[in-house]
Model the fold of this input.
Amino acid sequence: MHLHHPHDGHGHGAPAPSGAAARRPDGTRRALRLGLGGPVGSGKTATVAALCRELRSELSLAVVTNDIYTREDAEFLLREAVLPPERITAVETGACPHTAIRDDISANLEAVEDLEDAVGPLDLVLLESGGDNLTATFSRGLVDAQIFVIDVAGGDDIPRKGGPGVTTADLLVVNKTDLAPYVGSDLDRMAADAKAQRGHLPVVFQSLREEAGVDRVAAWVRERLAAWRA
Ligand SMILES: Nc1nc2c(ncn2[C@@H]2O[C@H](COP(=O)(O)OP(=O)(O)O)[C@@H](O)[C@H]2O)c(=O)[nH]1
Ligand SMILES: [Mg+2]
Done:
């Protein structure tokens, strides 16, 4: 099976336009929608939580989580109080997570629109996919840009294996760098493989166990938002 997709040519830094209209039915600009995908346990929810803590004082934020049968990720974010509860919503996909973020995005679109109706104009909505494999990517009709989160404990050959998440996501995050010495992952090799797969598309290595661990991803989000507003 051939899983390596060529770069889709939108990696020059400007946001690839989403298939969805940029304005809400009442004419106001809708929020920038960012998707976070990646394998189970790589740190998607932890990254969402860290981004909320980092950005909530400067932006109007909301989160949509996707789980197969539960609302666990949303419940974690609620327990951690990363945002007021009315800004966190869960979609129960009931099937493979990629179905709800790519094939039939209606439940997620409705969740985003309900959030915007309920809490007023939003700057940014973060959509977390249920954990899936290396092929799960978001529909461009649902998100304006996507972050793919892998981690060093999942094996340092993951960037080399490619797949559309690794090769085409607008940002690749390699998380849990603090664990590299314990699991024998070679970060230099991961960086070289990621570069070979992604060309000029950005890659961030991060550890959320470190102070300011999410800073570079937050800076990337701010850049996307600035480009979106422009
Ligand atoms: N050591 C370490 N653990 C992390 C890091 N980021 C997340 N985790 C832990 O990894 C586990 C899975 O994270 P989670 O965000 O739930 O993964 P998700 O399934 O991708 O949403 C949790 O126990 C997190 O606390 C990190 O940078 N370093
Ligand atoms: Mg999660």
In short: Confidence is low (pLDDT under 50) at residues 1-17. Residues 33 and 143 are 5 Å apart (CA to CA). The longest strand covers residues 61-67.
